[in-house]
Design a protein that fits this description.
By secondary structure, the protein is an alpha+beta fold. It is built from four helices and eleven strands; from the N terminus they run βββαβααβββββββα.
Length: 160
């Protein structure tokens, strides 16, 4: 990991290109057919924003429109396993990575991706997610953008 001039951390590629977590999320979304990315700069510092986003059992469910509850079953380093219950009564058993500024969770049928980086006292946030298309690197795009926009609006209201 290298730190850029603005304090964002990322991996340095062979060409010297620095990818912070939001840029990394853009790359992930570009590789998943049907995926949408909602990105916004929030007028709140990164620690405050990530306090809500990274709290899977608390703040996360308050801004994600579809989540009723999330229970972390196991955490080893940045690896996490969680059980989610949607507002519609559906369950999802997620496995993924959760660390400051980055979250990528996958279940058999769902994907959730979140990234956040500091922008001089403000925070750039990127959200993606949706229903997985079985057997393919693809998401079913119906309604995903609207739900991601709603999540971003709820997150902004929660942290500002």
């Amino acid at each position: 990991m290298k730190e850029s001039e603005d304090g964002n951390q990322g991996d340095e590629g062979g060409a010297g290109l620095l990818l912070d977590d939001v840029r990394r999320m853009r790359v992930m979304v570009a590789g998943v057919r049907g995926a949408h990315l909602v990105e916004r700069v929030l007028p709140a510092p990164l620690p405050r924003v990530w306090q809500v986003m990274g709290d899977l059992e608390g703040g996360f469910g308050e801004f994600q429109p579809d989540m009723r509850s999330v229970r972390v079953l196991r955490r080893e380093g940045d690896r996490v396993e969680a059980l989610a219950l949607s507002r519609y009564g559906l369950r999802a058993h997620f496995h993924g990575v959760l660390r400051p500024g980055w979250c990528w969770l996958q279940s058999r049928f769902l994907v959730i991706g979140m990234a956040a980086v500091d922008e001089g006292g403000r925070t750039r946030v990127a959200l993606t997610g949706g229903v997985r298309a079985p057997g393919r690197a693809a998401l079913v795009p119906f309604g995903a953008r609207r739900e991601l926009e709603e999540a971003m609006t709820r997150l902004a209201a929660r942290v500002t």
